[in-house]
Design a protein that fits this description.
By secondary structure, the chain is an alpha/beta fold. The longest helix is centred in the first third of the chain and has 14 residues.
Length: about 130
């Protein structure tokens, strides 16, 4: 049995990774991390002892198709994603990978939302903020 996690180098991705590692601690469960970010996934802060972790590059092409391909290839039983709050207008103009994954995934999806008030001392995400120009 395996679990696929869609991860970027942001806070939502970090929380998804934490949840995925906790789920993969079950005996006989492998973790497939689909890296959607532009940098390598840093798993050094996570307790992955006893978990077989495979990182798959999912940057090229359509992200949803890459995730669904990883689910199919590794015969995953579950998908874990990190989500953040977005307004309906924001989703309409920009689309939503999370929404696409939730609606079209061939396996059950666990959506993890970061707790803004909680202390993030257990995991640090140093994602640079990119200015938006137009």
């Amino acid at each position: 049995m395996s679990i696929v996690v869609a991860a970027r180098g942001n806070r939502e991705g970090a929380y998804a990774l934490v949840a995925a590692v906790a789920e993969a601690k079950q005996p006989g469960t492998d973790l497939i991390a689909v890296n959607l970010g532009h940098q390598a996934l840093d798993l050094s802060n996570l307790d992955t002892e006893g978990v077989n972790v495979t990182v798959v590059d999912g940057q090229d092409g359509d992200a949803a198709e890459n995730i669904f391909a990883a689910i199919s290839e590794h015969k995953a039983s579950r998908l874990i994603i990190g989500v953040k709050h977005r307004t309906p207008v924001g989703k309409a103009f920009l689309g939503s990978l999370s929404q696409d994954l939730l609606l079209n995934s061939p396996v059950p999806v666990l959506a993890v939302k970061p707790n803004i008030e909680a202390s993030s001392s257990f995991i640090k995400v140093d994602a640079p903020i990119r200015p938006v120009t137009g």
